[in-house]
Structures are given as structure tokens and as C-alpha cells.
Design brief:
This is Pirin family protein. By secondary structure, the protein is mostly beta strands. Helix content is 8%, strand content 42%. The strands form 6 sheets. Strands 8, 9, 10, 11, 13, 16 and 18 form a 7-stranded antiparallel beta sheet that branches. The model has no long low-confidence stretch (mean pLDDT 96).
């Protein structure tokens, strides 16, 4: 989870209890099983607040899918940044643009927040095989073609591409090495259909790690 506005209180079955503010990285690896909640803190709910951010899921390499779950929190000040020629880059996770994030990743990863001033441009490097741009706000073009807002634009492999800002714009750039196909059902992701089915059965039977102090339960969709 990466916020632009608002705050969230993260709690999970590992015992984590962490306030997440804009620019922080709240990073959880599900492994074989984990449960968590993210809620707006009481003091903000009482007066009303805006919550805006991204929750991005990264696939685990197959060998780690049944590993130990984990959680780490990385304050905004710990993330590497660069700013030049009207382009501001924050490296959220992985590596890119000669920056290296402290967030732990199990495979080569690129996850960056980009802010461009009007008229600025940025060459998107080809160092990661899979890359995609998500336009959060503003107007931008890639190689002269308009980028649709709130849509994921998948980039061709192996090509350096020019990103141009038509006005002030805000984007996320994600990518990394291909890890093969994954199956997904609700909040469960696995490369093996049997693992996915077991997760569904365990959740439906409430045979799942629980968040300390939480009693709310969400029924398995379709159950």
C-alpha cells in the first residue's frame, strides 16, 4: 500500500500494528497465509477525510509461494528520490533510474512514482522485461500517443520509450521479471490450482490466521 492522501492503520495476523501515512510503503508478503485489516484511524473518520493511494500486488516466485508471511513498514524519508528537469522520481520498490529502494523484493522489480511538470519528459529505460505505466492524474503521452487515465498501459519489451507531460502529471511505473501465469480468486493468488482451492476451503472453514483484537469476518464470495 502506498498513499498519496489520508492515513491507514494496518494490522495483521503477524501482530503488526502500524500507522501508514502518505509516502510510506506498507509492504506485506502473504506467503502461505496471512490476514490483515487497513482502516482509516478513528480521529480521521470522525471529522471526515480523503483517502487516495495505490495497493499493488506483486507475484511471489513459485518457490516462495508457501513461505513465511512477513510485513515491513518503510517511512517516506527512507525512499530514494531524484529530481531534475521537471521530473521527480520516487523509487517505491526494486531498482531503476540508478536508484535502489530499501523495500525487500523476492525478484527483480520496478515500482516508481513519477511526477512530471508541464512540458517535461522522461526516457523509460528498457532494463526490466515487463513494464507498465498507470496515469494517476493529469495528461501525458508515450511516444506521442495519449495515455488513458486510470488505465494500465503495458509497454513493449526491450524498447526505450519517451514519456512526455502535456501538463502536470502523476504516474506509477511498475514492472520486473516475468514469473509465469498465476490463478486468482478473490484475495487468493497461486500458480497451482490446488493451492488456490485449499485457500478457499481454509477461509470458508475459518481455518486461517486471525488478526489480534479483530472479530469481523468476511464470508468467502460465492460460498
Amino acid at each position: 500500500t502506498y498513499l498519496f492522501e489520508g492515513e491507514l492503520q494496518h494490522k495483521d495476523s503477524l501482530g503488526s500494528d502500524q500507522l501508514v501515512r502518505p509516502g510510506d510503503v506498507s509492504w506485506m508478503s502473504a506467503g502461505r497465509a496471512v490476514a490483515h485489516v487497513e482502516r482509516t484511524p478513528d480521529h480521521l473518520r470522525q471529522k471526515g477525510s480523503r483517502l487516495h493511494g495505490l495497493q499493488v500486488w506483486l507475484a511471489l516466485p513459485q518457490a516462495l509461494e508457501q513461505g513465511e508471511p512477513s510485513y515491513s513498514h518503510h517511512p517516506a524519508a527512507s525512499l530514494p528520490r531524484s529530481e531534475a528537469m521537471g521530473v521527480q522520481i520516487t523509487l517505491i520498490a526494486g531498482s531503476g533510474f540508478c536508484l535502489q529502494s530499501p523495500v525487500p523484493v523476492p525478484s527483480p522489480t520496478l515500482y516508481a512514482e513519477l511526477k512530471l511538470a508541464a512540458g517535461a519528459s522522461l526516457l523509460i529505460p528498457a532494463e526490466h522485461r515487463e513494464r507498465a505505466l498507470y496515469l494517476i492524474a493529469g495528461e501525458a503521452q508515450l511516444e506521442g500517443d495519449d495515455l488513458p487515465r486510470h488505465s494500465l498501459a503495458v509497454l513493449p519489451e526491450g524498447e526505450e520509450l519517451l514519456l512526455s507531460a502535456c501538463g502536470e502529471c502523476h504516474l506509477a511505473l511498475i514492472g520486473g521479471e516475468p514469473l509465469g501465469p498465476r490463478r486468482m480468486y478473490w484475495n487468493f493468488v497461486a500458480s497451482d490450482a490446488a493451492l488456490l482451492e485449499k485457500a478457499k476451503q481454509d477461509w470458508a472453514a475459518w481455518n486461517w490466521p486471525r488478526v489480534p483484537g479483530e472479530s469481523e469476518r468476511i464470508t468467502l464470495p460465492g460460498a
